[in-house]
């Protein structure tokens, strides 16, 4: 065997020499020189059971509102509905709002699916959804009534026309249901729309 160091040993010696050269001016830290880094306290997260309790409380409050919701819908009211695209704006409401609904300028704060419900269930759920949306400071909702020649497709626009808090509605854009849904604009404290100049 030869007394010459291996390539690995040469590299280790060179690495140690380079390290010593790099830290030549450094001083060793004493116990008095140490600084303990203060880590910020993590954001307090509510316990999981508190989150579940809050969700249950919100769901219960929503169910109470749904049960107490009264609807001003008359089955005898037969509006003269337009042929083709379903749209409506209440008297005194800027017709530009229906154009904005058509273009999808408003995103729904709430989606209510009435498809497959009876008329009585649909009236109750629609009234509760309007009340829920307004209670939560919402002003736009998506009402899904389904496609075809079903009863709800014919009745829902008339019910919406009767509700005092409905400002306008328009057949929903494709991404929100197209012919099977309506985007509905509600009267709200947040809503103070003016026609653009």
Describe the structure.
This protein is an alpha+beta fold and 197 residues long. It has a domain of 102 residues: Ribosomal Protein S8, Chain: A, domain 1, CATH 3.30.1370. 38% of the residues lie in helices and 12% in strands. The protein is built from five helices and five strands. Strands 1-4-5-3-2 form a five-stranded mixed beta sheet, sandwiched between helices. The longest helix is centred in the N-terminal third of the chain and has 21 residues. The termini are far apart. The C terminus is likely disordered.
Question: Which CATH architecture of the domain at 85-186 would you pick?
Answer: 2-Layer Sandwich
Oligomer: single chain
Average pLDDT: 78
Number of helices: 5
**Percent helix range:** 25-40%
Separation of termini?
95 Å
Low confidence ranges:
189-197
Give a short summary of the structure.
This protein is α+β, with helices and mostly antiparallel strands and 197 residues long. The chain has 5 helices and 5 strands. Mean pLDDT is 78; it is low at 189-197.
Fold topology:
Elements: H1 7-22, H2 48-68, E1 87-89, H3 96-103, E2 110-113, H4 119-135, E3 140-144, H5 151-162, E4 166-171, E5 181-186
Parallel strand pairs: 2-3
Antiparallel strand pairs: 1-4, 3-5, 4-5
Which tags fit this structure?
5 strands; single chain; 197 residues; alpha+beta; Ribosomal Protein S8, Chain: A, domain 1; disordered C terminus; 5-stranded mixed β-sheet
